[in-house]
Amino acid sequence: MKYAMLLCAALMIVGSPSHAADGQKPLYTVVDGNKVDPNTLKGFHTWRAAACDRCHGANQEGMVGPSLIESLKVLTKEQFVQTVRDGRQDKGMVSFGNNPRVMDNIDALYAYLKGRSDGAITQSKVQPIE
Amino acid sequence: MERSGTPARFAPTVLATALAFALPGVAQANADLESKIANPKNWAMQAGDMFNQRYSKLKQINVSNVGKLQVAWTFSTGVLRGHEGSPLVIDGMMYLHTPFPNKVFALDLDTQKIVWRYEPKQDPSVIAQMCCDTVNRGLAYAEGKIFLQQADSTLVALDAKSGKVLWSAVNGDPKLGAVNTNAPHVFGDKVLTGISGGEWGVRGFVAAYDMNTGKQVWKAYSTGPDNEMLMDPDKTMTWTDGKMAPVGKDSSLKTWKGDQWKTGGGTTWGWYSYDKATNTVYYGTGNPSTWNPSQRPGDNKWSMTIMARDMTTGMAKWVYQMTPHDEWDFDGINEMILADIDVKGKPTKALVHFDRNGFGYTLDRTTGALLVAEKYDPQVNWATHVDMKTGRPQVVAKYSTQAGGPDVNVKGICPAALGSKDQQPASFDPNTKLFYVPTNHVCMDYEPFQVDYVAGQPYVGATLSMFPAPNSHGGMGNFITWDAGKGKIVQSKPEKFSVWSGSLNTAGGLSCFGTLEGYLKCVDAKDINKELYKFKTPSGIIGNVFTYEHKGKQYLGVFSGIGGWAGIGMAAGLEKANEGLGAVGGYRELADYTQLGGSLTVFALPN
Fold this sequence. Notes:
The structure holds 2 protein chains of 2 kinds. Chain A is built from 7 helices and 3 strands; from the N terminus they run αββααααααβ. Chain A has helices at residues 2-13, 38-49, 53-56, 68-74, 77-86, 100-103, 106-118; strands at 30-31, 35-36, 127-128. Chain A has a 3-stranded mixed beta sheet. Residues 1-21 of chain A have low confidence and may be disordered. By secondary structure, chain B is mostly beta strands. In chain B, strands 17-16-21-20-19-18 form a 6-stranded mixed beta sheet, with no helix packed on it. In chain B, a hairpin with a 4-residue loop joins β18 and β19 (280-284). Chain B starts with 6 loop residues before the first strand and ends with a strand. The model of chain B is unreliable at 1-29 and 569-584 (pLDDT under 50). Chain A binds chain B through residues 33, 48-51, 53-55, 57-65, 67, 69, 87, 89-90, 92-96, 98-101, 116, 119, 122-125, and chain B through 124-125, 127-134, 199, 447, 449, 451-452, 454, 456-460, 463-465, 568-584.
């Protein structure tokens, strides 16, 4: 539930990053659809470095793996973290539990993918907010 | 990164038996398989023969009656995902393989009854290491043994009569991404296998195992010190300045920064060929790791290379690097086809290879001399031509992802990373002297980026998007005929999707192949635009067409079961907004034609 609240806050500040609600840090901040805060940018770099696109598609649209645009509408953050950490071996999902590059940046990765799933980040490739 | 191929799980009695069989020696070892190949009623090797020609002398099914072909019987493998390769047929028995979990079935062709089945126990975590498909390209046979190269890298010998395990050998470490998709090959008294994992920083090699014991006889890496590559600086030759010359000392080490060769790829998952006359095995090595070229300066030898090795010792006779310092993932593993043809008017013992990079190469297979290198898809644009003196492709700066640098999306490169052709093997018809080539007609945008190597994790370093070749027929494939002596396309038959199925030519004047929508097609070998027969099988075809004869009747068969890179390989453009809501790109439409599901369809003429 905590994340639902965070999400509401995040959605409110899309396009107006200066208005973070009640001093709570937004999950992500987006300007013009493709310019993001440093944490979310880190999430994009993590997504790319771990080659998630090979299964989930360059735009998270799903290929042999499911669409993360859809999956992140359903998964809680805890479920997301668990899936990335432990993998889903029967479905071919890699376990990234031993990959520090992914696990150390899991919050950033979640922020980026949630932003994509919410439709706030309108294209896969993002840039820093100037 | 050292991975040794130690035999595992030997039962002492099995070992003793195997050693006893090993004693008769080399000369006899090949005779059995050769006699099986010589009988066209069998389909005893994945390519039908050791030259990789994919040609059958059977002609009961021919140009005049193929239109009457009917389905004789079908068999479900019970496995989803991509079905590459084909079954083998030996003396009235058929041996089928499946993608992971790599089941093997032995069928009695009199009754189509399953005589035995084998299913290895493999750690399912290997599935993820094979991202994104769990294909297997088939079995090998010799001297009453069936050889299975499992996904988890274990090479297994099974008793062809009972399915009992005779020996097994561990070929790589799947935890580091060293897995297998290739078919093993029997040449002489050895079983040859390679390794996959170019996207995991695996250091490629080919290893030869004693057919009777599973003991590793030699192992030749694609990169690194000369002794580990089984390369002789003075005797291993390569095309240099218009002639063959020794490779020299440290020919690989000199072309890598630091010890990047240790995680430098050059994997070996294609179809190998063998020339008994010179005891030489031929294969290709794959892309260097990572896909971000700026990170690995140098030519990255001997990735992207045609290798010719002595089968007994593994020593490299000659090598030829097709794509020095790869910038596009033009993985050089495609099959080497051996054929005696006229090259520029001169009778030649040739090696013909259709590379992922879009060039069709003809070399003198005895000396390694470069004879022909021409585009086999006119859309190929990343290089203007291959300089015949240096043997190097002349790269067009606009399509250089090295020149673009990290985080720059280089657009409109043809072909795409899946190549003008991928692993789907071509056929050679000794009657027409032409090569029949299933091709891709796909281009790409390619954006490299910096990555760090983490053992056992993906090591890719580029985001790709692929699309049908622009300003063409709109489809993503062609089936072509190729004159390898001249380096010219003779005919080109457009296809809606990539032709990702190995073709077969027969003495009946036919050339047959499968399509991603699921059609088996047979065309007139003399005019491939004449489609003489087509039939829609249960799923898309990425398997290879094969033929055999049983009780006086010729049969033609093919696996269907969509998957592999072709089935999943389409990503959307990175810069297209709001397209994350569904799969986009050329292959999206494939879902309108076919679904997953592995089965074999066998055809024959009506009685």
